Amino acid sequence: MLDKVLDAKSVAIIGASKNKTKRGYQAIKTLKADGFEGQIYPVNPKEDMILGLPCYKNITDIEGPVDLALITTPARTIPGILRKCGEKKVSGAVIIAGGFRELGAKGKELEQQVVTAAKETGVRLIGPNTSGMINLKSNMNLVGISNAPKGHIALLCQSGNMALTLITEATIRKHEGFTYYVGVGNESDIKFHEYLEFFRNDPDTKAILMYVEGMSEGRKFLQEAHKTSIKKPIILLKSGRSATGKKSAGSHTGSLAGMSEVANRAYGRAGIIVIENSDELFPVAETLCSQPAIKNNSIAILADGGGHATIAADLLSDYGIHLPELSDKTKEKLRELLPEAASVVNPVDVAGGTDSDPTLFADCAKIILNDPSVGGLLVVGLFGGYGIRFEESLAIGEEAAAHRFGAMVKKRNKPIFIHSLYSSYESHALDLLRHYDIPVHDSLDISCKCVASLCKYGNYLKSYHGKTSFIFNWRAKAKPEGVQILENAGKEGRHVLLEHEAKQLIKLHGAPTSVGQVAETEDEAWEIAQKINGNSEYIANSEKTNSEKTTNSEAKASVVLKIVSPDILHKSDAGGVKLNLSSEHQVRKGFQQIIKRAKAYNSKADIRGVLVAPMAQQGLEIIIGTKIDEQFGPVIMYGLGGIMVEIMKDVTFWVLPINPTSSKKMLEDTRSSILLDGIRGHKGYDKKSLKKLISMCSELIESYPEIEEMDLNPVILYEKGLDVVDARIILKK
Predict the structure, then answer these.
(1) Which of 8, 59, 269, 387 places its Cα 20 to 30 Å from the Cα of 225?
(2) pLDDT tens for residues 88-130?
(3) Given this model, what pLDDT does residue 305 score?
């Protein structure tokens, strides 16, 4: 529990100072100036009194209880100080100093000493390398930022400058403010997910705003975010979008996983509103903090000019937001109010109808919001500036309309957004809108981003119960035969399953695949090839139509040969694959060539033989793979397969586990999804079997936590059914 840390009733300033430039002086001064409601204890062995407060030689000398320590001394002193804090039964400490893991090996070692001291003493840590924290409810300001505005947003930030930017923006806007600010720093002890749990249960916090540079326990964060976002929105900006994930020589999946795509998709599935641009961060948080979510993804636009309406419509369409057609009844009522030149379709253009009477904005808004197809209203143009631009007396009508806008939002539970060219002017009408928590912006882009965020959050709330909780039920569906396959590999000291072992494992869980048989000699290879010829037992897909089975039977004379070696992962690179072989001569010659090339590729390779399997029919090649992400744990990849996976890179990554709804959306998340439905007369492909295979992969990873990475590539998808042609499974070392 973080109550005594974030809601501390007493604070010790370790490193307190009389030097006005030192943090140990500024912290005491700010706490006193802001009217902190608790006790302040300066600690410095060289001083007797600081800013009128008695100074203690050591934290253990303080008579009363101490909930929180602000440590402003150098990094090397921290472990010893924490042990003294432990003696005093201090609940938490804010460590300002840098010089830890961000500086390399020595700093990392020192940080580990700090963490060890904290764990042994039970002192919870904010930081190190943090700008501090603020509890605005109790005026506990351990940062020194003056006049931070109070409100209903909790701010978690890994950059002091970014926090200052957001707090300054809130101060200038004079509308919404903060309950808490926490500089998370290196996240060495208290993690992001623990802060989420605290803010979820804080009655004064209505939204959580985050700037993240790195996260040490991403899956736990997703689990807490899943539980939090149903109660209050989380808005997040993550830096490092251009950085790619670590390369893995073991599989395609490992080399294609980028940090940004994994994180953004995971955050979205947990209900988090991900922001790409820093100037949108606070406006979106302010909007989500105060406005009802839009649950039908539909918005209407009310404009006093065509240009802004057109731009807004384009922006909202880019976000995938629906601009519904207004009902005939709505259009009829609007025509009664507006001049003949007005457009009463969505977007609605008043065509000068409000020039002499701005109260018409409210009349139109009432009619539009009564339309059941409309989830919210965006007003664009000059509202709030009529009294400035045209005639001062018009300001009275704007103010009356503003009051009515506020009442409409409350009555209908549908949000109203105002884009106004006069947002930065002194306008009482716009101030009234802000009083009613109605977002006002001079940027169309930001206004539309706020609309899109409310729609996205509403979509999440509507489908929340179909979302994953990101929790695994490990080994729940593991099969004894599958466990045995992994144990056999472990006994041999292998961390890679042979292809036929991998296929046997996925087949145990229902994946259609042609396992084949391993031949140690060319005689065995030809014998197996003859068995495959005409034997439907070897054909992976049993769901084909009669005509397709006829086609397959013709192909049963063709086999594929592949090298079997735990030391050769990429068989094609070693010349270890031969396709479409049918005659005895082709099979025997192919066997000889594969063995020869494999030995030339790696003379020390442990060669177990050659896998003989049926040659798959042509279809759409896709890839499904899994890997362990550093932040979020097991993730799954889906996209175009075969050689196209490296060329097109049309793939999507999702954090496991995957449910049926998620697998459907995975298919829709790629540019090539249109191919599944069929183009140019093609009937399309079996999406049902594909979704089933994706769910099977999730089940497999949940069943066998020993798996590090898995590639099913290619998977051949047909009009009916599919065939996992190649499978690679890498185990944790």
Answers:
(1) 8
(2) 999 999 999 988 888 889 999 999 999 999 999 999 999 999 9
(3) 84
515-614: CATH, from 3.40.440.10, 3.30.1490.20, 2.60.40.10, 1.10.10.10: 3.30.1490.20
Across 697-704, average pLDDT: 96
| Look-up of token digits 């030689």 | 57
Provide the CATH topology of domain 620-731. D-amino Acid Aminotransferase; Chain A, domain 1 (3.30.470)
Return residue ranges of the chain for CATH 3.40.50.720: 1-129
CATH 3.30.470.20 residue ranges for the chain: 620-731
Compute the distance between CA of residue 123 and CA of residue 188 in angstroms, rounded to an integer.
Answer: 12
Give the separation between CA 103 and CA 552, rounded to whole angstroms: 62
Q: Is the dihedral of CA 602, 603, 609, 615 positive or negative?
A: positive
Answer yes or no: is pLDDT of 246 > 60.
Answer: no
Read off the pLDDT of residues 154-196 as tens digits, 9 standing for 90 and up: 999 999 999 999 999 999 988 899 999 999 999 999 999 999 9
Pick from 169, 178, 175: which is nearest to 199 by CA?
Answer: 178
Indicate the DSSP class of residue 496: B
pLDDT higher than threshold 60 for residue 696: yes
Q: What percent of the chain has pLDDT over 90?
A: 81
Residue 49's CB: how many other CB atoms inside 10 A?
10
Is the domain defined by 147-290 classed in CATH 3.10.20.30?
Answer: no
What span, in angstroms and rounded, lies between the C-alpha atoms of 441 and 450? Answer: 10
**Mean pLDDT, the chain, integer:** 91
Residues near 328 by beta carbon (within 8 Å), at least 6 away in sequence: none
